[in-house]
Amino acid sequence: MEMVSILLMFTPAQREGIWDLYLHSFRQMLPYFFRYDHLNYARWGSVYIAEMEQLPKEVLEEFKKGNFVVKWNESKFNQVSPDHSLEWLNGIGKRGGGIVGITKTSSALSRWALSYNLRSQTADNTHTMFGLHQEDKFSQNESTPGRKDCDKKDECSLITILRQFKVFSSAAHPNCLYNIATKDLVTDKIQVSLLNAKELG
Description:
The protein is mainly α. Helices cover 61% and strands 0% of the residues. The chain has nine helices and no strands.
């Protein structure tokens, strides 16, 4: 649950552009990276934190204003990291009107890639000049009625399964970690490893 809590801090930190919360939650992840052998994250995550602690004053001020993430429009909770937005841009390129069919022609591909930002800016300036507003046609998947219904069904299914295994019953449960389906008990060594992952990391 602690790892889930860290993720629940990290997500709004990025989506809302809260620099201090972003850095804090990322720092909280580091021990788990080490403990669970995520070597690249452990190695470079530590370097990243050290570098972020030494940012020039003007860069830090911009980051604290939320300018370490990018957003599509002024709506709330829609900001993403620059690399995430780059993946989105790559996705745009692979759909109609993008780089499909020209990837083997390096000059055409270069023209498309180099001109994309300029073409986007020109389109935005044109909308502004004519007083038009480009409405956001995207919505968060989590907020659609269909997704909410699926989430409710998943919650009900999970509760049903937990009741089948008598997780909520007042009957005595083992004092150690155990598999609710098979009733297998973990060894002391495994329990110490799982419950102390952060400290051991």
